[in-house]
Task: structure prediction
Amino acid sequence: MKKFDTLRSHFKNLDYYIFIPYIILSLIGVIMVYSASYSTAGNINPSGILIKQASYFLVGLLIIVIVMNGNNKIIKSKKFITIFGFILTISLIYLKFFGAIANGAAGWINLGPINIQPAEVAKVYFIMRFARVIQAEDDKINDYNWVSIFKGRLYFSLFIVFFIFIQPDLGGAIINTSIIFIMILSSGIKWKKSLKILLFTIFLAFIFVFAVLYPLIKMGVWRGYQANRVISFIDPFKYHDRSGYQVINSYYALSNGGILGRGLGNSIQKNGYLPEAHTDFIMSVISEELGLLTVLLILFLLAFIVGRIFIIGVRSKSIYDRLICYGIAFYITIQALINTGAVTGMMPITGVTFPFISYGGSSMLTLSFCIGLTLLISANQGKRS
Result:
């Protein structure tokens, strides 16, 4: 009875500024996943895809209810984080040695009706882990000793990221590393120092791509699935019949749609021209069928959620809650940026899905859990006020 009172109290203070955009984006996702998978080419069953995506959405809503029915004392305990990290590490090691390869990577564990992607779950783990660590060490962290405080935890985190990278999952490795980096920069280091570190890291990333990865690919030292994606980013039209094929057809889809689109279900590129149209490149299909205005609406709703989560974090008196909000806001932002960058050819294709829209159980359920956490934090703020 007490649990239901807690849930009733939390829903009384439900943050509709997050919940309603989440519902709208998820429903757009269900509709567009069905439309993008309804192709005249290939052997995809669009009805099956629709049922699965709708199920992921409903289970995501259930996860939000479960999270809002409690508090975050259990999930922020050291014991929970330790067990979480252990299971995650074992899962990634299992994938490396026993995982089945799909789409060039061994990244999914089959659990019957759903395939779990540990690289997605890792994003939540790093947010929760570093939020807890920073809260526990808050009085010790400063501009001079933050390296020594985070060093051991950073080694273990990068060990996990390494196993994500060698699946190979370049997109997952980039996002998880970025989350770790942002969480550390949010620990209380002065903003000027954080900005310098951030800009320097971005500079090093570009140097790494163009001065290290690209030459290794050209010399044939690094080959395979991810290597082809990087080299097609440099010059997609040079490799139009191979690795550049996907991004070039994304260009066609974007240009075909114009401002208002060709109409729901009327995409040309999804019919055998654009691989992974209902996952990585769903925004291309949305642009072609529903036009630029719908794409801008989706980006606005996503930005609205991110902004609202950030505001909740700023208002929070708890260091842990504040960092959870910052981490989730960044997670959604970086995932959307990388996906949009790949669709428009501004970044390499890394297999990153668009939040709430692309087909996929792991991404939808993980993001729903994050939304549940932010709604819980917001509801507790509402009760206090």
Observations:
- The radius of gyration is 21 Å.
